[in-house]
Amino acid sequence: MATITSAEVFVTCPGRNYVTLKITTSDGVTGIGDATLNGRELSVASYLRDHVCPTLIGKDPARIEQVWQYLYKGAYWRRGPVTMTAVAAVDVALWDIKGKVAGLPVYQLLGGAARDGVTVYGHASGNTVPELLDDVQRFLDKGFRAVRAQAAVPGLERVYGMRKGDGDTYEPADGELPTEEVWDTGAYLDFVPTYMSAVRERFGYDFHLLHDVHHRLSPIEAGRLGRSLEPYRLFWIEDPTPAEDQEAFRLIRQHTTTPLAVGEIFNSIWDCQHLITNRLIDYIRTSVSHAGGITHLRKIFSLAELYGVRSGSHGAGDLSPASLAAALHVDLSIPNFGMQEYMAHLPGYEEVFETSWRFEDGLMHPGDRPGIGVEFDEKAAERFPYERKYLPVNRLRDGSVHDW
Ligand code: GCO
Ligand code: MG
Fold first, then answer.
1. Which residues are in the Mandelate racemase/muconate lactonizing enzyme C-terminal domain (predicted)?
2. Given this model, what pLDDT does residue 251 score?
């Protein structure tokens, strides 16, 4: 039996901070997993280095479920973003190893491809409506069949989800200390339907249109937004309300047929049990790296399948390529796949992560390299030392702290 001989943690900042766990076995096989938690990176690095890695040495890397249970139940302190991101990193690294040992891409170990490719959505944004329209055009020109649209709200200086430079991704985390933004729900609610209407007017209905609300609304406001967007037939509105209150989605549902997606900040199946079993959402957007890895994500999606809820994995640029690749393997193999986010990564990442995925005609495929198909270059990583960065904090006009 092979055993785990080392487990190392790397923190690197090629464009943005990523935490990577690398596990090596006595047979010399290595596997990697993403342990990045945006703005709280070092806490997961410490959780792994100081508490998890020493316990992995000598364990059988093939017993993925047992190692998962050991880390989840064995710690006594369960769940939470730091714990579950650490567990996820170990889990994905072990799946990567299992694939390499078997000589198979991970999706083959999960039952094989249930579809030819994974439909992904890109992120279009604009400081003005014409700018947004140009950006939607850019994504459609690249072959995307699904586009998320976000525009700056007139009168507000900075709004989430906006790209600052060129490229396909944006980086919300900056500043040695958190920057601050100001929010106005009324202005937002009035403005969104005007630009969604402009998008449909210019490009028609032959592609999927999505929108992220980023937890900013109350349930009744979300119901109003959903209803006002019905003519534009959105694929989903994402995170309409703060996600802790699962029952709140019943009220949103009563007021709109716009599909609802939620889950990027969930860490476990328990965070979405009520939402799924009560059919209060249409898409569950948990991520492989924040919700316990491939092992746990599959359980969430299996529960969802039973209730007609489809997957919509989170895939922002602050999830490392190891995370996106792992998600693609899951997406390809499950029956109830819905949509995968593909925000892409800031330039620089490809010096540290070598990937095997491909994008063609709006679909992604993880590739057929054994394991998850991502290689991590530790030497290159050293050239990009960690930089402390925070996500912004959001306030209402009266100074109250609001959801970001
Ligand atoms: C998304 C997200 C992200 C988050 C980010 C926070 O839908 O892609 O909302 O952009 O803001 O992942 O770290
Ligand atoms: Mg989001």
1. 129-259
2. 98
